[in-house]
């Protein structure tokens, strides 16, 4: 890995993609917190499906002309803007607000490209506490994860303070090195816990399973050192990294680590450019995302 390949920089433009729902307030709080802390420009985007005013109805009849608003789209935009102003307070003075009609993923993608956005912040669709996927990302978020070239911060919890315990997952790839460098730049001065979790192969077949797992962990610990040595890092950044190697299923280990240590952010490096989410995120990253009890920052690998 070279310095040029791993230099994502501090975000200067942060885009909040919001549906203005009650749960969307959590993403809004976090976007405002990060933009203030990093002195970054905040862009707020709300997209809604296009309205066909000719089909607006009044009960079962066509809406009478005197009851039909002169411009339903303009009125909707005005209502949304006023709501955002009420939620943001004085932060609205430094924010740029975009309210557009059209497919939400298309609208966000176009603004990311035209405005040179460095980070997108959004929320989850809902939680399913009794399902196998407690965190439901939603169609729009899954589309953004597949299509956007910039990191996406998925906010699940309220932003009561800056992130305190940040976990960066790694599989020792170039993509994971890029995600680590980005996290160091996005969260200057904070300690990052670098977590590698993987199951030891053939442990059930070994004559001494405990010794087999211990030897596998030792080998992975050496790989962790080699991985860190391969990345260009200023010494002050290197001192902020606390490595962890844990044998076991990655999805389970990451979730248990987050719960046991009250981690509030997990950074995931992703690879691929496939049109299907599994091809883009990989099954492991997708599984981790679907069960995390905290926020997640999804980082695409650097351009070749």
Number of contiguous helices: 10
Q: What is the percent of helical residues?
A: 25-40%
CATH superfamily of the largest domain: HUPs
- Residue-averaged pLDDT: 79
Give the strand line-up of the largest sheet.
5-2-1-6-9-14-13-10-11-12
Low-confidence stretches: 1-7, 55-60, 272-280
Which structural category fits the helices and strands? Answer: alpha/beta
Strand content: 15-25%
CATH level 1 name of the largest domain: Alpha Beta
Q: Kindly identify the CATH topology of the largest domain.
A: Rossmann fold
| Main β sheet profile | 10 strands, mixed
Total number of distinct structural domains: 2
Count every beta strand, where a strand is a DSSP E run of 2 or more residues.
14
Shape: elongated
Radius of gyration: 22 Å
From the 3D coordinates, which CATH architecture of the largest domain would you assign?
Answer: 3-Layer(aba) Sandwich
**How far is the first residue's CA from the last residue's CA?**
12 Å
Describe it.
- The protein has two domains: 153 residues, HUPs (Rossmann fold), CATH 3.40.50; 142 residues, HUPs (Rossmann fold), CATH 3.40.50.
- It has ten helices and 14 strands.
- The strands form three sheets. Strands 5-2-1-6-9-14-13-10-11-12 form a ten-stranded mixed sheet, with helices on both faces. A two-stranded antiparallel ribbon has the order 3-4.
- Helix 5 links the parallel strand 10 and strand 11.
């Amino acid at each position: 890995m070279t310095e040029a390949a791993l230099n994502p920089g501090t975000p200067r433009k942060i885009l909040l993609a919001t549906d203005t729902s009650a749960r969307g307030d959590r993403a809004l709080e976090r976007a405002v917190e990060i933009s203030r802390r990093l002195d970054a420009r905040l862009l707020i985007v709300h997209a809604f499906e296009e309205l066909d005013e000719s089909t607006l109805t009044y009960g079962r009849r066509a809406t009478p002309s005197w009851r039909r608003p002169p411009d339903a789209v303009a009125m909707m935009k005005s209502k949304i803007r006023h709501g955002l102003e009420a939620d943001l307070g004085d932060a609205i003075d430094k924010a740029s607000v975009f309210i557009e009609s059209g497919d939400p993923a298309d609208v966000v993608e176009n603004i990311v490209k035209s405005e040179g956005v460095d980070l997108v912040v959004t929320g989850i669709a809902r939680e399913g506490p009794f399902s196998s996927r407690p965190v439901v990302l939603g169609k729009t978020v899954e589309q953004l994860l597949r299509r956007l070239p910039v990191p996406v911060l998925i906010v699940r919890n309220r932003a009561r303070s800056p992130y305190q315990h940040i976990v960066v997952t790694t599989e020792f790839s170039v993509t994971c090195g890029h995600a680590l460098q980005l996290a160091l730049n996005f969260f200057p001065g904070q300690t990052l816990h670098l977590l590698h979790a993987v199951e030891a192969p053939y442990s059930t077949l070994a004559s001494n399973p405990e010794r087999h797992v211990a030897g596998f962990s030792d080998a992975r610990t050496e790989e962790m050192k080699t991985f860190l040595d391969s990345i260009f890092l200023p010494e002050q950044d290197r001192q902020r990294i606390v490595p962890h190697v844990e044998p076991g299923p990655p999805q389970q280990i990451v979730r248990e680590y987050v719960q046991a240590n009250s981690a509030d952010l997990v950074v995931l490096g992703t690879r691929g450019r496939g049109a299907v989410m599994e091809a883009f995120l990989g099954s492991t990253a997708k599984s981790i995302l679907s069960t995390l009890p905290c926020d997640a920052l999804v980082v695409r690998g650097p351009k070749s």
